[in-house]
Amino acid sequence: MFRVVIGCFAVCVLAASSLQAQTQASCNFKVFSLNPSNPNNPATHPSGVNDNSTVVGYGDYPQATPGFKAFVRRSGGSTTYWLPQGALWSGFSARNNNGSTVGGYVDSSRNAHAVLLQGSTVTQIVHPNSAAHSTGVSGINKFNNTVGSYTDPKTGNQIGFKRYSGGGFVDFKYPGATQTLPAGINDNGAIVGTYIATDNSNHGFVYRNGTFAKLDYPASNSATNLEGISDAGIIVGDAGASGSSGPVSFMYKNGVFKRIADPNLSPSATIVRGISAGGIITGELVKSGNWYGFTAICQ
């Protein structure tokens, strides 16, 4: 799929807005909670997953300090948390198959920090041109190349970047956009994310080898967000769709959009947050006011 998307930008991706949503994806869901005895304490908010079904994200502890705490949950259910000493909150964004994880935390002075964790080694990620404490990192591939964004101190706008494992940065901005917000990168170097146009509408983008393509969910109500891309080029995201009571989560494969929702938790909200290199999807489910995590294989 990756070769299809990249190889025919003008025909396939730029024409995607004219496609109509296809059937709901057929998915095998595995739902979990960080605290099964009380799913609302903490609320479970996954952000990324690898091919071992290890999920990362943050737990939301109501009426507690700190309220947000980064977690790593392995496929068997064992969970570890990460919070630097003195930090007010922490959260993870993505994890690759080597176990390297990206995320961030807010220190006791309320300054934000982006980090790369490799075992017990923590590397601060700071874009050299960013406004103070404005660098955020959202995705990582097997080469430990990461993507994220930073605030331009001159304009206040968000600019996307790719950071190579050696520490070098390359910036990119969607043409004409006010904000460029990368979300994920696959092992082939394809990047997906969201850009904000001058009318403040959200649109999805795919970026590869210096070339951008717009990718919006059909009938989207000015709000498409792409969250991740697998090595096979399967893209996941969410959108505000006409006629829907809330955001619609979707996968985009071989030129076709399919909705992602867990039929066993209806009525509920299904929110996709990421996809692994091999195609495992993760996100969160909202049911009766409780927030659950999930992994899924979808066709």
Layout of helices and strands:
Blueprint: H1 2-7, H2 9-13, E1 27-32, E2 43-49, E3 55-60, E4 68-73, E5 79-82, E6 89-95, E7 101-106, E8 112-118, E9 121-125, E10 136-140, E11 146-151, E12 158-163, E13 169-172, E14 179-185, E15 191-196, E16 202-208, E17 211-215, E18 220-229, E19 235-241, E20 247-253, E21 256-259, E22 269-275, E23 281-287, E24 290-298
Antiparallel strand pairs: 1-24, 2-3, 3-4, 4-5, 6-7, 7-8, 8-9, 10-11, 11-12, 12-13, 14-15, 15-16, 16-17, 18-19, 19-20, 20-21, 22-23, 23-24
Strand content: over 45%
Largest sheet: 4 strands, antiparallel
Number of strands: 24
Query: What is the arithmetic mean of pLDDT?
Result: 91
CATH class wording: Mainly Beta
CATH architecture: 6 Propeller
Considering the protein shown, what is the CATH homologous superfamily?
Answer: TolB, C-terminal domain
CATH fold-type name: Neuraminidase
Distance between the termini: 13 Å
Task: Give the tally of structural domains.
Answer: 1
The sequence of SSEs as H and E is HHEEEEEEEEEEEEEEEEEEEEEEEE
Low-confidence blocks of residues: 1-21
DSSP helical segment count:
2
Question: Any key phrases for this structure?
Answer:
299 residues, mainly beta, Neuraminidase, 4-stranded antiparallel β-sheet, 2 helices, 24 strands, 4% helix, 51% strand, disordered N terminus
Brief digest:
The chain has two helices and 24 strands.
